[in-house]
Design brief:
Chain B is mainly α. Chain B has helices spanning 24-48, 56-61, 63-80, 99-125, 127-134, 139-148, 150-173, 186-205, 209-238, 242-253, 257-280, 290-312; strands spanning 2-6, 319-320. Chain C has helices spanning 18-26, 65-69, 96-100, 122-125, 132-136, 153-160; strands at 4-9, 37-45, 48-56, 75-77, 84-86, 107-109, 115-117, 142-146, 163-164, 176-179. In chain C, strands 8-1-10-9 form a four-stranded mixed sheet. Chain C has a two-stranded antiparallel ribbon with strand order 2-3. Chain C has a two-stranded antiparallel sheet with strand order 4-5. Classes of the chains: A alpha/beta (729), B mainly alpha (331), C alpha+beta (180). At the A-C interface, helix 1, helix 2, strand 3, helix 8 and helix 22 of A face helix 1, strand 2, strand 3, helix 4 and helix 5 of C.
């Protein structure tokens, strides 16, 4: 609203206050929010991986609210549901409070006892040293998620370990980034380089932006709707974006690759692709043309259930808006085990439309050239994460988390120690619980660093309570964006209880391990201040502004006529991948028909709900109040066939006999009759998560049929089937 | 198919999942209010009609229980307030659009008149008690004074009693947001029901046979009138807007059917009417206590149904995607 | 009466609930209470479907039955606007206003015993700011402003777009508009 509209009213306010009945009656005052002493401190969010910058407000010293930083490119000044609820993490009464050590009681039962930081840290470094002496420092691995992991990967590298992995690779983005690297020589970054703010046509295929709240994506997609851009959503479920799209293609689960190939077929067959762009930048077009010739819309209709005419129409829509057409690469792409190939198909489709490097397609990101704090070089580790999976997964350019767990099982296992930072493995990796348990039995040391008593803490020898992002410094945020930009995370509050910032924990461990030269600072703010001064800012300045934007130094899009060097072996966009062929994989994506559910079983579709970041936020009281559980979406036909009522609690069983926790049924038309759907992140077993404990079902535990992507080791999760078990009680 | 649901959990106390801001306290208050209006009305009417001999209890004894009943109702009304320290706020303003504000002020008028009524009939109605208190200073003179103006007091009491009786119905019917309440028939229904319970109470307590018989006769007439109004109310609902139809269906074949037809209509109106018919014809004397008790029970059940069902009828009602009982974990 | 309106574009709303959290934190709403909420309405049968999301709250009605029903004047229109507020120091907790709201649960019980509700963040409005929900919404699907000003964004939207209000048949003249 317009500031001018209020002048009259504000001037009236004084008069209103003078006749307040408070004075007449002596009634208690009910002060309006913000009428006390208000202060604000910058941060960037840790509620998910988007890392939006904002300000934390306090009123009279008490936590009040968090609001986006207007200068922040990730959030454009607006935090999402979870970011707005960040104080709930800080205030969570279930937070880890003190270091915990596993002890065996006289009765043989293992429990945790509280320990001092000194005792816990000495215990860890003692074991780390003994592993290093007996096996080598490289036998200590780390599995992590979240920005605070920087401090610990620094520690690991200084110690001589090269084995780190985040589930974000093999359980999420890996196939996509590998597929795009193979095609364009680069991945997509995070936030992704999607230029939706300028797109005239957007294709979402299995990506439900809006149900996930990837802030910048949500905002730019909303703007695309506002601009009446053509949005084409491919999803078996009537997702939120499907409901706002010009075209919704309710595809049969698992047949997306066929549709992508059919679109290529139409673009090439009808001559709609960007001929000039392809000639200029790509290699392998002729092979591709021949390859997709057999994927006619008519043939693909039989697989996908999408009418040939609709396939043609949507392909023409894409071409009409190209190159401002984005085939969205998605993010969570581990579906059916052929995911790198499907991501390749998406990359190729973008190439045919000339979208990569073009306005409205996929732009060129730029970071700040931020010097690293001067430290000695890391020692070369004797082995790295590849030791976990050997010759398998040749294109895994990052650690495969499940492979590291598997390589931790048994007497002769490669890994002897494990540091888990900020990732709740049992609910993150599909069907991993048995292996995880076996690994934990074999490992000589398991350390968990977390803020919450999530399930993984139950597997640890030592649990270290980190303070939340609102109580600590972390590295500066320097993500590739539309402009180079830095953001500061700094302590808003003193760490609660005995929790400590990650940088402090890493430094203390480093000093005990004799790695003082890698940790020469007393306070991590020294590092940040030094770095900021190299780029013309300072910690003092950033503590006020939170975000500093810098001008671009190179263009955001390809410049017409200028040659482009792609970081592929051929230096061109590789429609045909010799790299894949050399390793014995299909050089161009091939469609394979997905497995169909057995009689009486349904596709287990899973996804996100906007209120939560997986299982990480379900115990946050603000978000728990918003969405306390996940529900099982069931089509009315299924409900009546199975005699299930809306609101009833049921369980799900998979063909391997795994039975889920109870989940509440939502009967809705938004789901196909051959599928059920639930949001991921519920069904916590940890009793110490008092709000979310035992609420809802956990999809990952039902995923015992994992389809591994042989190219990069991704764990495909969508080939799982479940049947509905009614509660007899 | 329309699926309209809350996708953010909402569990506001007393409004989710169905509205229930007013409980038994308000039902009791409305019942007691109607009953005391009926009592005051008959007490004053009989006095004005000079029926001292035929209905000695109504003329001289009824006012005291009326005052007690009203005070009980006022107590439960006060119990319902959730911000009790501020109850005096009713009397720092008069809000003409608010029936509750009217009610608050009507009670201000009712109370003194009811007290005067008691005083003016106390010596005859409760000679033993009067003898006890008359030794106190001024009390005797107070009795003398009020007795002198007892007809004037009765004249004042009639409109106030009618006003209170109608008010208890209008209080609810003024809520346009609650389609079941929002009918002009609720005022007359509550008035007639209040008079009927007042007559029944008199018939129950009075000792003299002629008085019992007269009030049984009056009550039978009022029950017939009440049945007619109920019929009109049902027709009104069943031919109304969507939320009114929903209310009708709750009565005619829903969660309130048993209470409405079984308890209120059958036990509270039809059976007493039948019993009263026999009683007037001189039969079934040993069941004489039963009819008035049933009428009183029926009167209370009417208030319970009206208060509870009325709150549930609404223009907008959403189901929740989530089981909001989970939110109890917050406490 | 100056008329403030909230205009919500259901074509952009994704039902994320950020408005609800923003309200709770901005206004320090006690745990377990809601001054706003999100409704999803899905029509049709698979695959011929439409879904609409609506962020709902007090409609700050021009003809506010809750204000009319209040026996003490605690429920009132703020400074000759349509913004409906409750003065806790006048509220007896009689709850007539709750029953008087045709939108059900427009007002909620504060643990302190008085009635609490959406205030359109008048403490922000008087500083020239939008209500917390509006200024937080990540899809920018919510708008706020004066209807009396024909050049305001809300006036412009209502002039150029299709819209509806909730239960207009109640006659309450609500001031939260939904673009469709």
């Amino acid at each position: 609203m317009n500031r001018r509209e209020f002048i009259k009213l504000s001037s009236l306010l004084g008069a209103g206050a003078a006749v307040s009945p408070l004075l007449l009656t002596g009634c208690s005052a009910h002060p309006l929010p913000g009428s006390g002493q208000v202060s604000r401190t910058p941060t960037f969010c840790d509620m998910c991986f988007w890392k939006c910058a904002g300000f934390v407000y306090r009123e009279d010293g008490e936590p009040w609210k968090i609001h986006g930083n207007d200068n922040d490119l990730h959030s454009e000044g607006r935090l999402c549901t979870r970011g707005t609820a960040g104080l709930g993490n800080y205030e969570d009464p279930d937070r880890l409070q003190k270091p915990l050590l596993r002890v065996t009681g006289a009765d043989g039962r293992q429990t945790f006892r509280e320990a001092s930081w000194d005792e816990a840290l000495d215990f860890i470094t003692g074991r780390m040293k003994s592993i290093a002496e007996n096996h080598g420092a490289d036998r200590f691995a780390m599995l992590n998620h979240g920005y605070g992991a920087h401090h610990f990967s620094h520690l690991m590298r200084a110690w001589g370990s090269g084995s780190r992995a985040e589930p974000a690779f093999a359980q999420c983005r890996g196939p996509r980034d590998v597929g795009f690297k193979l095609t364009f020589g680069e991945g997509l970054g995070s936030p992704e380089r999607t230029d939706m703010e300028h797109s005239r046509c957007i294709v979402l295929i299995g990506s439900h932006i809006g149900e996930n709240l990837h802030n910048g994506q949500v905002q730019t997609l909303a703007n695309a709707w506002r601009r009446n851009a053509t949005v084409i959503t491919v999803d078996p479920r009537f997702s939120v974006p499907a409901g706002k799209s010009k075209y919704w293609l309710p595809i049969k689960p698992g047949t997306d690759l066929a549709l992508l190939l059919a679109w290529m077929h139409v673009l090439i067959d009808e001559g709609l692709y960007d001929r000039d762009y392809v000639q200029r930048h790509a290699t392998g077009f002729e092979q591709l043309k021949e390859h997709v010739a057999r994927y006619s819309p008519e043939w693909v209709y039989l697989e996908t259930g999408i009418q040939p005419e609709l396939i043609r129409t949507t392909a023409r829509e894409m071409a009409a808006s190209a190159p401002a057409t984005l085939i969205h690469p998605g993010r969570h792409t581990v579906w059916y085990g052929d995911d790198t190939q499907r991501s390749r198909a998406i990359a190729i489709l973008n190439a045919l439309l000339g979208s990569w490097g073009r306005k409205g397609g996929l732009y060129i990101q730029e970071k700040v050239r931020l010097p690293k704090f001067p430290l000695p070089a890391y020692p070369k580790p004797k082995s790295d994460f590849r030791a976990a999976h050997g010759a398998r997964y040749p294109f895994a350019y990052k650690g495969v988390s499940n492979a590291i767990i598997e390589a931790s099982i048994g007497e002769d296992a490669h890994y002897k120690g494990l540091l888990v930072y900020g990732t709740n493995l049992p609910m993150t990796i599909p069907g991993i619980r048995p292996q995880l348990k076996a690994a934990m039995d074999s490992l000589e040391l398991v350390v968990v660093v977390d803020t919450m008593p999530s399930e993984i803490t139950g597997y640890a020898d030592v649990v270290l309570p980190e303070c939340t992002y609102l109580e600590r410094y972390d590295n500066l945020r320097n993500s590739g964006e539309r402009h180079p930009s830095l953001a500061l995370r700094m302590p808003v509050f003193e760490p609660r209880h005995e929790s400590k910032p990650g940088w402090w924990i890493a430094r203390e461990l480093g000093h005990r391990l004799g790695l003082q030269k890698y940790f020469p600072w007393k306070d991590y703010s020294e590092v940040l201040d030094w770095q900021l001064k190299q780029v013309g800012s300072s910690l003092q300045e950033m503590q006020k502004i939170g975000v500093k934007n810098f001008p671009r130094t190179r263009p955001r899009y390809f410049v017409d006529g200028q040659p482009v060097q792609f970081r592929t072996p051929s230096g061109r966009i590789e429609l045909y991948s010799q790299q894949l062929a050399d390793q014995g994989f299909d050089p161009m994506p091939e469609y394979t028909r997905p497995q169909q559910p057995p009689q009486g079983y349904y596709h287990l579709n899973y996804g996100r709900m906007p209120a939560h970041t997986f299982g990480k936020t379900t115990n946050n009281a603000l978000l728990f109040q918003l969405a306390p559980e996940n529900t099982l979406w069931v089509n009315p036909l299924v409900a009546s066939a199975q005699g299930i009522e809306n609101g009833e609690y049921v369980r799900l069983a998979n063909p391997d006999g795994i039975i889920s926790n109870r989940i509440r049924v939502r009967v809705t038309e938004r789901i196909r009759p051959d599928s059920v759907f639930m949001a991921h992140g519920f069904g916590h077993r940890s009793r110490r998560l008092r709000l979310t404990h035992d609420v809802g079902a956990d999809d990952s535990e039902l995923m015992t049929n994992v389809k591994v992507d042989p190219i990069m080791g991704g764990t495909g999760m969508r080939g799982n089937f479940v049947t509905i078990v009614r509660e007899t009680a | 198919m329309l699926e309209e649901i809350l996708v953010t959990a909402r569990s506001n106390p007393h409004v989710d999942p169905v509205m229930h801001v007013w409980g038994w306290e308000i039902s009791v208050y409305l019942f007691m209010g109607g009953l005391s209006a009926g009592i005051m009305f008959f007490s004053a009417l009989m006095l004005l009609m000079k029926k001292d001999r035929e209905t000695p209890f109504a003329v001289n004894g009824l006012a005291l229980p009326g005052l007690v009943v009203l005070s009980l109702g006022m107590t439960t009304l006060f119990m319902d307030l959730s911000h009790k320290l501020f109850v005096w706020r009713f009397y720092t303003t008069f809000e003409p659009t608010s029936p509750m504000s009217w009610g608050a002020w009507i009670l201000v008028l009712f109370y003194p008149v009811a007290i005067l009524q008691v005083l003016s009939t106390f010596r005859k109605g409760y000679p033993f008690l009067a003898g006890l208190v008359e030794s106190l200073p001024l009390v005797g003179r107070l009795f003398d004074l009020t007795e002198r103006y007892r007809r004037l007091i009765a004249w004042l009491a009639i409109p106030i009693a009618v006003g209170l009786g109608i008010y208890t119905g209008i209080l609810l019917s003024a809520f346009s947001a609650r389609p079941f309440w929002n009918t002009g028939l609720l005022g007359p229904l509550f008035l007639v029901s209040g008079l009927s319970t007042g007559a029944a109470l008199t018939a129950l307590i009075a000792r003299q046979h002629t008085e019992k018989r007269l009030f049984t006769l009056i009550d039978a007439g009022l029950i017939v009138a009440e049945l007619l109004i109920v019929a009109l109310l049902l027709i009104n609902l069943a031919t109304g807007s969507r939320p009114q139809l929903e209310a009708a269906s709750m009565l005619l074949g829903g969660s309130y059917t048993g209470w409405f037809w079984g308890v209120f209509i059958t036990l509270g109106l039809l059976i007493p009417l039948l019993l009263e018919y026999f009683e007037i014809r001189g039969a079934l004397r040993n069941l004489a206590m039963l009819a008035p008790v049933l009428v009183l029970v029926g009167g209370y059940v009417l208030r319970v149904i009206a208060v509870d069902l009325g709150q549930e009828t609404t223009w907008i009602n959403y189901e929740s995607e989530f089981n909001t009982q989970l939110l109890e974990r917050l406490h | 009466m100056a008329r403030y309106a909230m205009v919500i574009d259901t074509l952009l709303c994704i039902g994320c609930g950020d408005c609800v959290v923003a309200c709770k934190t901005e206004n320090k709403v006690p745990e377990g209470l809601n001054r706003d909420w999100v409704v999803e309405a899905t029509r049709g049968t698979y695959p011929n479907l439409t879904t609409e999301f609506r962020s709902e709250r007090c409609n700050h009605c021009s003809h506010a039955t809750c204000v009319y029903m209040c026996p003490t004047g605690a429920s009132h229109h703020w400074q000759d606007t349509n913004i409906v507020l409750v003065d806790p120091n006048k509220c007896t907790g009689c709850k007539a206003c709750i029953a008087a709201c045709p939108y059900d649960a427009r007002l909620v019980m504060h643990p302190g015993g008085y009635i609490d509700k959406c205030t359109f963040c008048h403490h922000r409005v008087e500083k020239g700011l939008n209500p917390a929900c509006v200024s937080t919404c990540p899809t920018h699907c919510m708008y706020f402003g004066l209807l009396d000003d024909p050049s305001s964004e809300v006036s412009e939207l209502l002039r150029t777009r299709n819209y509806k209000v909730l239960a207009p048949e109640t006659g309450n003249q609500p001031n939260v508009y939904y673009l469709t």
